[in-house]
Amino acid sequence: MEAESTMSASELEYLACCGSTKFAKEMAMASPFPSLKEAITAARDIWFNKVDVNGWLEAFSAHPQIGERSRKVDTSAQWSKGEQSTALATATGSGLQELAEWNSKYRQKFGFVFLICASGRSSAEILSELKRRYPNRPIIEFENAAQEQMKVTELRLAKLFSTKEKAVPSGEH
Amino acid sequence: MEAESTMSASELEYLACCGSTKFAKEMAMASPFPSLKEAITAARDIWFNKVDVNGWLEAFSAHPQIGERSRKVDTSAQWSKGEQSTALATATGSGLQELAEWNSKYRQKFGFVFLICASGRSSAEILSELKRRYPNRPIIEFENAAQEQMKVTELRLAKLFSTKEKAVPSGEH
């Protein structure tokens, strides 16, 4: 991945939505967007048609394991914590332990972190989904992870847009 | 990729058939096979169900670009040269130039080499197939490449088996 220090402020905002450098650069180039809807349409096209499989893996590797905290303290890590708040609030100690074990099994089989749009899901739901997806062929799980990544990206683009709207109230446009 | 120097002779034979370390190790563990048919069945299961997407990329990266010679002089490079012999015999200078340009375009879009089971195909056929596949989404092309890799692997397993049979004639079993 390109060093984040050489990226523009706009690119870094999009990188926090989806950790593929190519995605961030293409979104920054296509911006500004008149609305969230246009941003999401562009994001879907870039993610599924332009970012290659190495870019998908790059984006997946930017996620902390479900139930684990990221060591980073950037926007992406903060959003990730928020998205997992239901899971963390509903987890028992042994539940988190089981989730950690299955996460590790998953990573060993597929070579990337178990990716799920965790927002609003309990830890039991996440664990059951992980067990359901585990027997899949690697290529199927790769596509599932990319679909989940897109859901996460959409939520984060919405947050990015709402932050921007607060920063520039409509009366001052 | 694990250093080839730590691999067994059997693992190296399978690595020449398909450049994924995991594939080579699993095949060596499952061997010996009573016939080529059983070896191919095992290979298909390992390649599509056990090797993860990083392993697919590792195998793809072991191929020279179509029309280019590998810098390596190992079994895989020799077989590759044989598989491309029709393409090289039918190519004109400008044909090879165009193939090189499209290969480079393909690699830039998808992040891995254009993979096709070249055996018996003319350079014009290969170029036309490259142009047909180029507009595909990255994930579709990733699967196409994996299917082509499997065809190459099957041809190479057949060569490996015929070499072994020559080395140990049936009368001496």
Task: Kindly list the characteristics that best describe this protein.
68% helix, 173 residues, disordered C terminus, mainly alpha
Characterize the structure shown:
Residues 169-173 of chain A have low confidence and may be disordered. Chain A has helices at 9-17, 21-30, 36-50, 53-61, 75-83, 85-90, 93-110, 123-133, 138-167. The first copy, chain A, is 68% helix and 0% strand. Chain A starts with 8 loop residues before the first helix and ends in a 6-residue tail after the last helix. The radius of gyration of chain A is 17 Å and the shape is globular. With 173 residues, chain A is mostly helical. The longest helix of chain A is centred in the last third of the chain and has 30 residues, at 138-167.
Q: What's a quick, concise take on this entry?
A:
2 copies of one chain form a homodimer. Chain A has 9 helices and no strands.
User: Which series of helices and strands of chain A comes N to C?
Assistant: HHHHHHHHH
Assembly context of the chains: homodimer
Radius of gyration of chain A: 17 Å
Overall spatial form of chain A: globular
SSE topology sketch:
Two copies of one chain form a homodimer.
Chain A: H1 9-17, H2 21-30, H3 36-50, H4 53-61, H5 75-83, H6 85-90, H7 93-110, H8 123-133, H9 138-167
Helix pairs in contact in A: 1-2, 1-9, 2-3, 3-9, 7-8
